[in-house]
Target: Probable dual-specificity RNA methyltransferase RlmN
Amino acid sequence: MEKQDIKSMTQEELRAFLVSLGEKPFRTAQIYQWMHEKLASSFDDMTNLSKVLRQKLQDACEYVSLEKVRVQISQIDGTRKYLFRLADGNVIESVLMRYKHGNSVCISSQVGCRMGCRFCASTLDGLERNLRPSEMLDQIYQIQRDTGERVSNVVVMGSGEPLDNYDNLIRFIHLLTEEGGLHISQRNVTVSTCGLVPKIRELADQGLTITLALSLHAPNDEVRKSLMPIARTYALKDVLAACHYYFEKTGRRMTFEYSLVQGVNDNLDEARELAALIQDQHGHVNLIPVNPIKERSYVQSGRKAIEAFKGCLESKGINVTIRREMGRDIDGACGQLRKSYMDKEQEKEGAAVK
Ligand code: SAH
Model:
């Protein structure tokens, strides 16, 4: 029999599973609490279960627990970037950011990504596989255990396109936000998407109160197509209509992410065009100075250009923030740490073959 991914089970599924093993239903709350509240790293940690039961679980289940490979700590702001190894040997990265309002963890939703955004390091080698709910959760669990500090916000903005791993994402959100686990408020969870229109609409109908962030990055389809292949599939007017629908259904204001790339999307005409484009949307713009990756020649806009862009949007009544660059000194951009780790591993393998 294939081993069960026990950490991805809902409480109801866990109950049915335990009963199928011949166990009493009251064990459900105990075991669920060990996994999702006490953040046990193995069945052996579950000291109020008998040895026999622990062994039984061990035989029937896979207990997902990520292995910490490396932590990089920013000397500037204390941001911690983690590299974790999954059971199949793949590595993923997650980031802990410390803000005044609490600790925020940015998680990966896939190993790699198939969306192909030009400036993004996560997508350079394509998609390896989807992450399971347990593997998304455990990024947060490991970080909370490692620091001993409570995580209050979660952003699904690491490697991967979360809406391309939709069912696992929804299950992950339930496990993260419901009672019996970390019980993080859905309002403190943000999911960022490059704009998969049918999935944005499905998410709107899901009955969650999470925040949705759209990676916009351009004021029109032409510029967007040059940066994001997905723009060839979905026109901006359809993406924005889906965002409007999301707001109407959930009452949650959108975040529009706009990475500023010098000479590509950062002049004042483009700021005006952007303002007109999202005038009727309920949301705000988050400007991100593009984080250059060595595989591409994109250059960050200068401070002045960023401020001017911001000022222009504000003069049109748009709410704007400039994203603070957290952990600038530690391979900050999505997928950069994983990519540089894998490149080094490959070099080592190459050297070994020689
Ligand atoms: N697939 C999701 C989440 C990925 S990353 C999405 O597209 O939204 C989170 C954000 O960081 C996205 O807005 C993404 O476009 C942006 N991003 C990725 N690499 C970047 C880089 N090198 N510089 C600036 N922003 C980047």
User: Anything to note?
Assistant: The chain has a mean pLDDT of 94.
